[in-house]
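Appendix C: a fully annotated inverse folding record. The material below is reproduced so that readers can follow the format used throughout the book. The structure is listed first as tokens, followed by the designed sequence.
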């Protein structure tokens, strides 16, 4: 990366949002110092700490990470396109940059879409295009990066189409479990970062007399529903993709607890290193297959966990816990993450009183359900707009949140909550699946 990029000292979310020190939004953002610091640290560990540890598969290099980042930013069509394309141009030749740009143009569509595997949700399935890297582009980028871009398109636009079979192309291109986790973290982090920047820019713009209502320059191309192509076997690659033919799966969205089973082999509890245990933050997470899976990339896990805790549990000011949880729950419902929705509808119930019917409507009817109050409905609308790809959140959403009684610090908490769960949902959906505990069968 060239010195001219200035990423060593620049807060990337502030930069993308057009926020400057001393401005109202910049000052409010400092109320979540841990979230801000660790979002920036996530950028560094995922974009500027390429895997060059001598593994036989060659690692996950910085240049490969910039290729993926430029592709993901391009698919979002927002504020990050020029930034990430420039970063790629610092380290790659013109042919690679052109190949990524061509892939972005071929992959543009509108999300989220996808097919539910849960029987009671089949009627909510929405078809959409399957992205395949063009053979000529594949010749420029190579099979390993082509598989990564196809996986990235899945996560950006239709993460609920994730299945064990979707990981097999990565395994057969010799992505190791550690590198698959880093790849999923990178894509999912960018889905958070770009949404946070769009949301903060809208808060800043909402005070302008001539503020635009949204970005009218994005291309909203629905695409044509397609069936996925054939996938290689689950076994025989760099790792064996795990699958569970007899798993007891949930049939719908619920507000009670669920289990979760990984498709990528996690680190065994007895094999966790001291660094990995520190990255878990909470020692009890060593019992969780999900967190032991993310521990393959301990730096990314630790930064993500600290970002999460500040966004949702720092209650010295800003939005109430229930409002933050409903932003997470609506985002998860709209993306189709049954596991995350179960956790955060349950927490929304714990943090509120008398909202059982409202939360049940969210589970049953979806993200457009009437949640029983103008504040919750405004949060739901904002969360859906932030979750859409391309992002459709704008100053009209900020003004509705303000009118519902939220100050700007609280609005930023809602933005952060929805943006963060665009990170969390994609990890949960792409790396494993929910399981119905025995007591609920």
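Designed amino acids, in order:
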């Amino acid at each position: 990366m060239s010195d001219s990029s200035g990423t060593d000292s620049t807060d990337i979310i502030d930069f993308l949002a057009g926020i400057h020190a001393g401005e109202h939004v910049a000052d409010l953002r400092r109320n979540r110092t841990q979230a801000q610091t660790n979002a920036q640290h996530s950028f560094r560990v995922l974009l500027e700490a390429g895997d060059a540890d001598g593994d036989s598969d060659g690692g996950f290099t910085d240049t490969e990470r910039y290729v993926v980042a430029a592709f993901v930013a391009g698919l979002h069509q927002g504020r990050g396109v020029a930034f990430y394309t420039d970063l790629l141009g610092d380290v790659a030749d013109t042919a690679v940059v052109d190949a990524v740009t061509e892939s972005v143009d071929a992959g543009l569509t509108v999300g989220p879409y996808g097919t539910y595997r849960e029987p009671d949700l089949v009627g909510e399935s929405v078809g959409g295009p399957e992205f395949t890297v063009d053979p000529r582009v594949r010749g420029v980028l190579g099979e390993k990066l082509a598989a990564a871009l196809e996986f990235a398109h899945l996560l950006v636009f239709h993460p609920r189409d994730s299945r064990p079979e979707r990981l097999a192309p990565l395994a057969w291109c010799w992505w190791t479990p550690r590198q698959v986790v880093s790849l999923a973290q990178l894509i999912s982090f960018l889905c958070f970062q770009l949404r946070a920047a769009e949301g903060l820019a809208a808060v800043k713009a909402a005070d302008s007399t001539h503020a635009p209502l949204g970005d009218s320059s994005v291309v909203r191309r629905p695409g044509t529903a397609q069936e996925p192509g054939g996938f290689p076997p689950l076994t025989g690659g760099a790792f064996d993709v795990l699958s569970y033919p007899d798993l007891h799966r949930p049939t719908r969205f619920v507000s009670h607890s669920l289990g979760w089973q990984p498709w990528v082999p996690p680190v065994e509890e007895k094999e966790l290193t001291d660094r990995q245990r520190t990255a878990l933050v909470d020692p009890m997470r060593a019992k969780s297959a999900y967190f032991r899976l993310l521990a393959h990339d301990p730096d990314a896990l630790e930064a993500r966990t600290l970002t999460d805790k500040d966004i949702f549990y720092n209650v010295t000011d800003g939005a109430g816990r229930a409002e933050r949880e409903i932003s997470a729950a609506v985002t998860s419902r709209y993306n189709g993450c049954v596991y995350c929705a179960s956790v955060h509808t349950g927490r929304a119930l714990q943090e509120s009183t008398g909202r059982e019917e409202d939360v049940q409507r969210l589970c049953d009817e979806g993200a457009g359900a009437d949640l029983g109050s103008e504040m919750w409905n405004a949060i739901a609308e904002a969360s859906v707009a932030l979750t859409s790809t391309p992002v459709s959140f704008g100053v009209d959403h900020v003004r509705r949140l303000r009118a519902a009684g939220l100050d700007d610090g609280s609005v930023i908490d809602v933005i952060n909550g929805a943006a963060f769960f665009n990170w969390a949902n994609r990890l949960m959906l792409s790396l494993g699946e929910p399981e119905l505990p025995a007591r609920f069968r």
